[in-house]
Amino acid sequence: MLGSPHPHARITRIDAAAARDAPGVHLVLTHHDVPDTLYSTGRHQNRLDDPDDTRMLDPVLRFVGQRVAVAVAETPRQARDALALVRVDYEVLPAVLDPEAARSPGAPLLHAGRTPTGHRVAEAGRNVVAQVHEEYAAPGHDGVEAALAASAAIVTGTWTTARVNHVALETHGARAWLEPGEQLLHVRTSTQVPFLVRDELARLLDLPQDRVRVVAGRVGGGFGGKQELLVEDVVALAALRTGRPVQWELSRTEQFTTVPCRHPFRVTVRAGATADGELTALAIDVLADTGAYGNHAPGVLFHGVHESMAVYRAPNKRVDAESVYTNNVPSGAFRGYGLGQVQFAIEGALDELAARLEIDPVEMRRRNVVRPGDPFIVGQPVDGDLEYGSYGLDQCLDLVEDALASGRGEAAPDGWAEGRGVALAMIATIPPRGHYTHARVTVAEDGDFVVDVGTAEFGNGTTTVHAQLAATELGVPVERVRVRPSDTATSGYDTGAFGSAGSVVAGLAVQRAAAALRAEINVMVSTGSTGGAIAAGARPDLAGMSAEATHDGSPRSVAFNVHGFRVAVQRETGAVRILQSVQAADAGVVINPEQLRGQVEGGVAQAIGSALTEQLVVRDGVVVTDRLRHYRVPQAADVPDTEVLFADTVDRLGPRGAKSMSEAPYNPVAPALANAIADATGVRPRDLPMRPDRLWALLRATAAAPTGRAGR
What we know:
The chain has 712 residues and is of the alpha+beta class. Helices cover 26% and strands 24% of the residues. A hairpin with a 2-residue loop joins strand 25 (618-619) and strand 26.
């Protein structure tokens, strides 16, 4: 793939003739050779959730690295050599790289002419993809400004989060082929959303859905990054044009420079409280940089400002939020889906309020957290289907507070300042707007049971959970249950493995299907139509029996996580050492404790990376951290032992009382770490990542500030 050298340019001439004649070349594609169909790389149950602003190959280029031409050859080297022969003339256009500048008058427009109704772009004339402007005052209250004016304590501050790459072990890759004599297009791909990929490929290539088969297999990590259509379109078109198998696997550098990253946010918080520590007002102003394209921009923005605000009770709330186009690498779906960015700011503001009022940070949260029966976000529920299927936030706060007071963990080195920090997060257990799945459980020829469910396994552990749920309902050992990989030709429909839906949506459908099959078999056994019970092994006369079930993802519950840290900070260098790390999770009934601990520990490790070291650095539109040696993910030695504790709850909406937990552990980590650093040093870091050089500069700038609780 030939990438754009400019952050903003128009192709005025492109000549690929020499490339098409190069050795080993089967096909060269430019914008003249592909369907001129607008779409979004972001995939959702409702394809209208994201703006249609992308073309497979576009004559207007909006970020460095965007596709200009694609060569298909016998070998990767021949394809690269062919691309060197493509001649391109560019009209370089003015670029805008700062999101504040992008929405200001006179800024270059990236998608001029896109409309809210036709393309789902909020204000193309201001480069604004999506926006939320809402205010709520409870009866008897006069709004945010009046409440702040009457508050005993007020905090105002701005927090920023950086671009972060998913760094999944497996990069994006796909293989497509046509079976000899078949009209069926096969696509095997590293995706979290095989059915959504199938549907959009059929639309882009003008094929019936039954002519496209997508198989996910086991995917090597995703974290939201594979909720996109990024390589499958070109691979599928090339297979159709050449009649040959075609494969494209991104290099790690391509992964860093062309694949959507985590949205960078700027969040300004204004919060007020009474002298007793009760919130009077909470207002946020959010600016998100969605980069060159709007994939996931509306969803990340809306989700980011909802549960983050809803987790605290305040009679006056306001949200002003916009997501803006820039000529930077696109942003997209990332674990937490916007919540982590906003919670980093709100949790920091809560700690500052607690300090000004001289109230313990945990107690400050106890006095203000949402409780069952309270309304969700600004005035109204997020959706009518969002409920408290269970509530364990109070337990999580107690568990973390007790753990931090226990004396467990390491001691601070001599001369280092020690501090503690906590933060919490709430998340809906299922994405809004529907998340559908269909599951089937069948008696195999050998008497075991086969589960067909369309959700993709990408390290989230759903294969294990689905086997456990089916085995429990059938009353057989889990070894007698086989879960087949996601395949759009053999599995029932599934929206996808995102939004932590693998257990609570697909899992519930599997549980229902297994229960239905057991009931059918028990009827046959009781009437004498067969001679064997399930526990003894299904007999051959049962082979082929099956039962099916569905789930539409409604109603949804909420889950909670609280994280606590003890840290030591070396003032002379800004170095941070984590002495104790503990997270309490309200996950309902824990189906597989060992696996869930792994989910939490992995989420904490990933969050520590984005909190302390990870940043996708873009200079003049060019990603300079374009390989792992320049982009520092935590190594094993950088990750502390995290004590994982579970609240004792049973969710009435989830499978066997369980709640989702894939995304949630990530969200409270960065704010808890920032709060601990602030407690240790008296200086509050408000920008991620909190690298030693940044902390050192903050400490030098406020050398006279009070020191932390210990090591003073």
